[in-house]
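Run log, item B.
One chain of 396 residues. Sequence copied directly from the ordering sheet:
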Amino acid sequence: MTARQAAYEVVRRVFEDDAYADRVFRAAAEGLDDRDRAFAMQLAYGTVQHVRTIDHAIETLGKRPVRKLDPAVRAALRLGAYQLAFMDAVPVHAAVNESVELVRRAQLERAVPFTNAVMRRLSEGLGGLLAGLGEATPAEAALRHSYPDWVAETWWREWGAEEAVGLMRAQNEPQETAVRTRDGARVVDRIPEGWLRTGYAWPQSRGSQLAGSAVGAEPGDRVLDLCAAPGGKTAQLAEVAGEVVAVEKHRGRAHELAQNVERLGARNVRVVHADALDLPDDLGAFDRVLVDAPCSGLGVLASRPDLRWRATPLPELQLELMRAAVPLVRPGGTLTYSVCTIHGAENGAIVDALGLSFDDLGAEWPDFRHPRRPEFLLTLPHRHGTSGFFVARLRT
């Protein structure tokens, strides 16, 4: 399989089968060398991210609704349009010809002339069309930067136009590669395979590592990580705490969690396969509890290309999880809430609804102080260059 064929498989599966891009890519890219794998990833993930803008161009210049195209033709045109619009190193003739070949390999010879014609129209008119897209309103910015309208509207309302556009632009750029080692956070160009295999390092954004640090675990503490998979924060907490109980609802992810913490040398972790809302009675009480809750993920869109198209705010679940966690905290202990999203309804509103007192995390980490709620932390991709995380530490 070539790099373009691997990318083609990802784009087709994501939009036709609702598959997850990273899972499809792992299988599709197997056997590719490092160079082809990197090209395939850029092409596949970039196309998925920018699909709304790309589809607008295809419909405008191709004069046919994208939804009415054969799936194979639709995927080939999307890949070709992305190369023309966002990959300057790819020659125009290569983008055009290879897109046509993808349709031919799909045994759709009757669609080859149409694909060729649309690709040539895109090669001639795409640049001007994209340059003419505005960003003065949420609707314009959502189309130009390829986001669902509701995300643009949410950020516009909560942060204003300039910050909203900054967030959109930043999360269309490649995210820095960060790892956590026992010496702290490191930003690297690439992660040597041996680092992961031996447990020397774990891929974890600086924003995520900040959330783990904000728990404030101390030597001897008994810590509960209530939504623990895949295990980066669990292992981070285990480096300091006396014991960590890591809870994961899904059996497969609980198994993966156990493997990961073992690889990272976290011997003081007990993995519990259970629903955080229906925990075993024998867990006991904890000095520190972390609820790294499921969320819309609006702070990690740069690293999860298909998430913007499936993201859903989950404030009811988040509040339910936090209320379930409160009785598990010992008197004088702390309950930390973190989510990888930039969305008020899933951030400060959850903390406010609990009615508990909270620590001034902004005083401890002033560089990441929430701009409007200084007692909380908020990493912002366009300001801090890392994934977006909201963090609050409460007292029961």
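Observations after the first pass:
- The mean pLDDT is 96.
- Residues 112-131 form the longest helix (20 residues).
Flagged for discussion on Thursday.
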